[in-house]
């Protein structure tokens, strides 16, 4: 919810403070979260792997990061309303640092307590809950429409997001006992290691085999390219909608994409069981590419309306299928001792992609115009699809059926 509110309002705040002809500067500033994440997410993934406390390995980072973020987030919007560019950027950086402390340990918590064969389903549940936040954020952007003449009301989504985060952290502290749950799951986690889909056995404290290392590079490359495309869509969508299509209702596309993904997450697990993780990702990327092509022509010849929103809904189905499978494929390479490390590797790929694409797309829009919004994403999604074709699967390792 926080990231969606940030990605929608912050470019608009920056445009109001910098001017409408500074896309490249907006792109650079909006890439700060990804630039910080490149270094800090792997760091806190490794630190949490090595942390031992009565609250667990991940919980201290999760609580500290999220509490700081929920305080800083509304203050960031306040600075924009007061037209203080410097303080807006300073508070944005501090908020990003707080969320970076939180992110890797929070994501690593799922594979910490979930056996490898069940991680796609667990990841589907995680994404399902996360996209409820995205839907709420999309609703807030439609309810509190951005107005450069009077930006005061735009702080309300930031305050509401902070309240939701406070509730979530409180519930986690009250209901979740990390060390106890990890101990209860120990035997199932050991069994899950034996049922891994890696080409060779993963041994603790030893490097991956050459074959699995090659697979890791391939899937990370595909993740990089997919996020390279998707981040450009999400971070510059509000500018494209207002400046090219002349609509203040672009938040609707974010909401329907999130709703479509939400509906797809859990059913997509059945597709994964039937055709495998690799083939599921290929299907998901194909759906996204097809809908982006359709979206480009609809936006060009029809404009903003139901057909374009429908393209985003179908694209959300594809994105859900991709998301459910990519992270589990990465942590499949991890042992129980270094899940945080591989979570960091996953986020390095996605964050480097988002940082670079945010800068690049700002320059591309400046040179070629914002009309290339869809075409830009199509190119990199297609490259991700091509790379996935080279991933090698373990066809001899058929997982036994489970009632989970």
What does this structure look like?
By secondary structure, the protein is mostly helical. It has one domain: MFS general substrate transporter like domains (Growth Hormone, Chain: A, Up-down Bundle). It is 77% helix and 0% strand. The chain is built from 15 helices and no strands. It has helices at residues 2-18, 23-30, 32-50, 59-81, 85-112, 119-143, 156-175, 178-184, 186-194, 210-243, 251-275, 277-301, 306-331, 339-368, 373-388.
Provide a brief overview of the structure:
With 404 residues, this protein is mainly α. It has one domain: Up-down Bundle (Growth Hormone, Chain: A), CATH 1.20.1250. It is built from 15 helices and no strands.
Task: Summarize the SSE layout with pairings.
Blueprint: H1 2-18, H2 23-30, H3 32-50, H4 59-81, H5 85-112, H6 119-143, H7 156-175, H8 178-184, H9 186-194, H10 210-243, H11 251-275, H12 277-301, H13 306-331, H14 339-368, H15 373-388
């Amino acid at each position: 919810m926080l990231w969606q509110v940030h990605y929608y309002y912050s470019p608009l705040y920056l445009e109001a403070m910098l001017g409408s002809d500074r896309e490249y500067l907006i792109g650079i500033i909006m890439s700060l979260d990804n630039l910080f994440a490149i270094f800090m997410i792997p760091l806190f993934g490794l630190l949490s792997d090595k942390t031992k406390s009565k609250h667990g390995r991940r919980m201290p980072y999760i609580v500290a990061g999220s509490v700081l973020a929920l305080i800083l987030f509304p203050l960031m919007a306040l600075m924009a309303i007061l037209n203080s560019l410097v303080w807006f950027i300073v508070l944005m950086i501090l908020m990003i640092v707080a969320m970076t402390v939180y992110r890797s340990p929070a994501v690593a918590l799922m594979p910490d307590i979930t056996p490898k064969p069940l991680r796609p389903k667990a990841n589907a549940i995680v994404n399902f809950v996360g996209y409820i936040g995205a839907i709420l954020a999309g609703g807030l952007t439609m309810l509190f429409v951005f107005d450069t003449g009077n930006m005061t009301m735009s702080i309300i989504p930031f305050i509401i997001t902070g309240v939701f985060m406070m509730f979530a952290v409180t519930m986690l502290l009250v209901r979740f006992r990390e060390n106890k749950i990890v101990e209860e799951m120990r035997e199932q986690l050991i069994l899950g290691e034996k049922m891994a889909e890696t080409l060779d056995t993963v041994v603790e404290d030893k490097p991956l085999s050459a074959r699995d290392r090659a697979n890791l590079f391939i899937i990370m490359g595909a993740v990089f390219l997919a996020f390279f495309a998707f981040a450009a869509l999400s971070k510059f969508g509000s500018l494209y909608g207002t400046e090219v299509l002349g609509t203040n209702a672009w938040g609707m596309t974010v909401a329907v994409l999130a709703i479509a993904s939400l509906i797809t997450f859990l059913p997509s697990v059945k597709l994964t069981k039937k055709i495998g993780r690799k083939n599921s990702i290929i299907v998901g990327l194909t759906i996204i590419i097809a809908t982006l092509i359709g979206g480009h022509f609809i936006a060009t010849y029809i404009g903003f309306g139901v057909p374009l929103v429908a393209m985003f809904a179908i694209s959300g189905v594809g994105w859900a299928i991709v998301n459910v499978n990519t992270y589990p494929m990465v942590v499949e390479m991890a042992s129980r001792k270094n899940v945080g490390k591989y979570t960091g590797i996953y986020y390095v790929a996605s964050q480097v992609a988002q940082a670079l694409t945010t800068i690049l797309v700002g320059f591309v829009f400046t040179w070629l115009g914002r009309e290339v919004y869809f075409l830009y994403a199509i190119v990199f999604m297609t490259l991700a699809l091509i790379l996935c074709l080279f991933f090698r699967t373990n066809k001899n390792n058929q997982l036994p059926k489970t009632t989970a």
